Amino acid sequence: MNWAEFVTVALIHLLAVASPGPDFAVVVRESVANGRRAGTWTALGVGTGIFLHVGYSLLGIGLIVSQSVLLFNVLKWLAAAYLLYIGIKALRARPAAPTDLETPAGALERSARGAFVSGFVTNGLNPKATLFFLSLFTVVIDPHTPLWAQAVYGIYLAAATTLWFCLVALLFSQRRVRAGFARLGHWFDRAMGAVLVGLGVKLAFTQLR
Predict the structure, then answer these.
(1) Which helix (H) or strand (E) is 99 found in, with range?
(2) What is the pLDDT at residue 33?
(3) pLDDT confidence of residue 104
(4) Of the candidates 33, 40, 160, which has an alpha carbon nearest to the alpha carbon of residue 105?
(5) How far is CA 19 from CA 22, 150, 183, in A?
(6) Which residue has the higher pLDDT, 37 or 80?
(7) Per residue in 90-106, pLDDT tens?
(8) CA separation for the pair 156, 146 (Å, rounded)
(9) CB of 20 within 8 A of CB of 172?
(10) Portion of the chain with pLDDT greater than 90, in percent
């Protein structure tokens, strides 16, 4: 394995994953609204979505998507529609009762599967992630790098992404942090909804270059 290449991949991924985006917004919202368990499952969903991007990048499907305006736009509109859907739901949030900090609104109904799917779909349908991984596996990673080494890179990227967002979930699900957000009540949920809607609209106008 080329360790210099691995370090380059790791640094580029670190900069990308630390940048606020749909994944970050979804994990934060789940963590604050539904607690650590939901936030962690959302983070696991985001991390698992990385395997999807790595998989089609290794198979060369990402190159096909990047060259097809139709396929790119289909993926783009699906992702934008999903972000708009969850964003509008958050915008319609109503004031919560004071006791909801102990048992967050919707926490009983929020299953691990639901939180996981939320993270997976948010990451998996993001066409910007498609272009990121395509460029990573065609420009940064030498095409002559053995397939097994590229697979190792993919496993690392998924694990590092999962770890990062688990830490985000851990931070934003802390009792004091949630208490601070709880004082803002439903306005926090609405603010996160506005962020998600904004990201959805921005994504909808993303052009294939």
Answers:
(1) none
(2) 84
(3) 46
(4) 33
(5) 10, 24, 27
(6) 37
(7) 677 665 554 444 444 44
(8) 16
(9) no
(10) 29
The amino acid occupying position 132 is F
Query: How would DSSP label each residue in 71-87?
Result: HHHHHHHHHHHHHHHHH
Tokens, residue 51 = 């395997």
* Token pair listed for 193: 């909804």
Say if CB 18 and CB 164 are below 8 A apart: yes
Say which residue the tokens 């909804």 belong to: 193
Q: Of the candidates 22, 8, 139, 15, which has an alpha carbon nearest to the alpha carbon of residue 78? A: 22
Closest CA to 52 of 65, 41, 39: 65
Place of tokens 């395509």: 134
Return the ∠ at Cα 187 (arms to 197 and 101), rounded to 5°.
115
95-151 per-position pLDDT tens digit: 555 444 444 444 455 799 999 999 999 998 887 787 788 778 776 787 688 888 889
CA 107, distance to chain mean position in Å, is 20
**What's the predicted TM-score (pTM) here?**
0.71
Q: Is the pLDDT reported for residue 207 higher than 80?
A: no
Residues 6+ apart with CB under 8 A from 86: 26, 118, 193, 196
The closest alpha carbon to 65, from 21, 19, 129, belongs to: 129
**Residue of 95, 123, 127 lying closest to 208 (CA atoms):** 127
